[in-house]
User: Fold these one by one.
Assistant:
Number 1:
Amino acid sequence: EVQLVESGGGLVQPGGSLRVSCAASGFTVSSNYMTWVRQAPGKGLEWVSVIHSGGSTYYADSVKGRFIVSRDNSQNTLYLQMNSLRTEDTAVYYCSREYSSSSHTRNDYWGQGTLVTVSS
Amino acid sequence: DIQMTQSPSSLSASVGDRVTITCRASQNIDSYLNWYQQKPGKAPKLLIYAASSLQSGVPSRFSGSGSGTEFTLTISSLQPEDFATYYCQQSYRTPQAFGQGTKVEIK
């Protein structure tokens, strides 16, 4: 059974750092594209970052230069290192597997989300 | 970047109604369009991928159509468990933007 479990969310002051994790089971993280999506309170979904199976990484303009996506193949875990946090980064952060077939990709499995609150 | 616009932002409907949600892309995305359902406090759930392919396990009352820049999600007969927010997402190019969402409420 495929499962994604996020952890590491919490309260952090503006300008601070936090790392959230996403532990996967039932499939291999390093063989898939893995995505981070966030949702501010009462707002819609915002695509944040992706790491490809080959290791290439991409970021939304809103987080570029501040966030880093990575993975630990031995732990089958995805990470999002968030630096220079701003109040507008407050959101539930979801990790998701991006599955591809016939060149069409979609986010077929999602974690339950972890809440990051940036506030003084 | 490609922008996605959904309409309406919200709608009220009754059980048994046929519901249609529209999603427009700011440029041609062929059929690289996915639809998700989200209930309060829960993660999004994939409904439709590649504009019209039904994800495994999703009821057949959900269907998707369109290509290029205009797409629709149709619920043929609204059920109580379908009251939720629906999002489209383009998978044509990174960043894979989402629409702003359409909230389906009980009339």
Number 2:
Amino acid sequence: AQRVTQPEKLLSVFKGAPVELKCNYSYSGSPELFWYVQYSRQRLQLLLRHISRESIKGFTADLNKGETSFHLKKPFAQEEDSAMYYCALKARGAQKLVFGQGTRLTINP
Amino acid sequence: SAVISQKPSRDICQRGTSLTIQCQVDSQVTMMFWYRQQPGQSLTLIATANQGSEATYESGFVIDKFPISRPNLTFSTLTVSNMSPEDSSIYLCSVETGWNTGELFFGEGSRLTVL
């Protein structure tokens, strides 16, 4: 079975500081990994996926198969980054996403 | 992309009653997913609904408790039957517009409180 773990329920950093949201997964195959974000009063939406290897809103995430991790990073946090972040995994060939428990990120001015 | 409308956005229900949540999409989609998010918990998939076939339920969820309809490519309903306080949750409808992309579009959710 697949499992996604986000060890931090809450994370608070100051504006301009680096931020890293941790995500670890458990899956025996080759996974597809995603980060979803939910801003206040908005619906859940895709932030980025590992297969695209892109930077969205300054965020990047690298899949580390050795450590089974997919941490989300941004070098300089901005106040508008305050949101709930969910890491999600999709098994190869599967249709569904398995979500982690989420991390609430707060950026302090 | 897809725009999803869910109704009701919230409701307060009595124990033992049933409530049907509607999900309307602005485009035709093959895959629709119903998730539950209990207070302080992550999103848990209830079932996958494909048009023209029976919904596929995840472990721990059964059709008698969560019957789903999928009459066409733009609409689905989820009924929460014989509700108890443990069913108090946010129920989310989501769709995948591409094929197996993993990119889901979500509705705003339906927040149910069962007394």
